[in-house]
Amino acid sequence: MAQLSDKERAGCAKLLSTMPESDLRLLLDTVTNKMIEVVNAREAMEAIIAYSSDAAELLKRRKVHRDVIFKYLAMEGVVMPPNSDKPLLVKRTLDLWSSGKELSHQGPSLEMEIHSTEMNAETTVEQLGPQFCQWFFEILNSQNPSLGQKPQDWGPQHFWTDAKLNISSSTVGQCTEEYQGASLVSSRLLALAKDERLLISPNLESNGLRVLSSPHGLVLVAVAGTMHRDTCCLGIFEQVFGLIRSPTDGTWKIKFTDMKVRGIGDSGAGGMSPALTCDLNQLELLYR
C-alpha cells in the first residue's frame, strides 16, 4: 500500500490534532473499515495516518470538515477567503504539502527561528519578515481555546520593557487603544486570542508583507491579513512591528507594534487576500 509523504504525514497530524476525539474515532472507522481499535485520540490519529495512502482522499472525507481545513491553513499562515468551499481548501492544502515551504510542526520559537539570522544583507532582512510573522501569529493563535491546541510560549519576555502597542479599530465605530510596557502589551495581545477568541491569519505573500531595516538596527515588519472568530471573518488588519535585536542574547524583541483593524465592508477587497495599503515611504517615516 502506498504511503503518505513525510510532509503529508506531518501536515495531516497537525490538522487532525484540531479535531475532537469523537470525530477522530468516526474518521478512523471509515478509514480502516472499523478494523482497528484505539484507546485515545493520539492512537486514532496515528492509525488514520498509517492506513491512509492518499492525502487528497483523506482530506475529502466527510468527517474532515471544511472548518478544520480552514483553521489549519490559517495556522500555517495561508490566507484564504472566508467563503472558500471545501474543494478549494483541499486543493490549497495539497499545494502547500507539495511545495518547498517548511511546515511549522511544533511551533518555532523566536530564538530557534531568528536567533542566528545575520542582518548584514538585504535578502536576510527579507527572510526575517515571514519568519517573524509565522512565529508571532502561530504562538498568538495557539492561545485561542477554540483551536484546542496546547498554548505555546507567550509572554512579556518577547517584548522590550518599554514596548508600545497601538490598536485602532473601525469595525464598530472608531476605537483607539494605547498600552506601554512589556506586561501590558503582552496581556492585551494575549486577550485578542484567549478572551476574544480571534484567529489572526497573516498574508505572507508579496502584496501582504513588507520589511525594512534602518542603519541603527531597527527592523520594521508590516503585514496585512484577516481576523476570524470560528468560521466568521470579522475584518481585515494591518500591523507594523518594530524589532530590535538584544545585545545580550542575540534574540529579536518587539519594540513597538501598531495594529489597524477595519470591517470587511470597508476594505473593498471582496474575496481577495488582503494587501498592505501603506507604502515603503510611509514605513520609513516611523524610524526617521
Description:
The chain is an alpha+beta fold and 288 residues long. The protein folds into 2 domains: 6-98, no CATH class; 110-287, Roll (Nuclear Transport Factor 2, Chain: A). The protein contains 11 helices and 7 strands. Strands 1, 2, 3, 4, 5, 6 and 7 form a 7-stranded mixed beta sheet that branches. A hairpin with a 5-residue loop joins strand 1 (159-169) and strand 2. Helix 2 packs parallel to helix 3 (41-50). The longest helix has 20 residues, at 122-141. 32% of the residues are buried.
Which structural traits does this protein have?
288 residues, alpha+beta, Nuclear Transport Factor 2, Chain: A, 2 domains, elongated
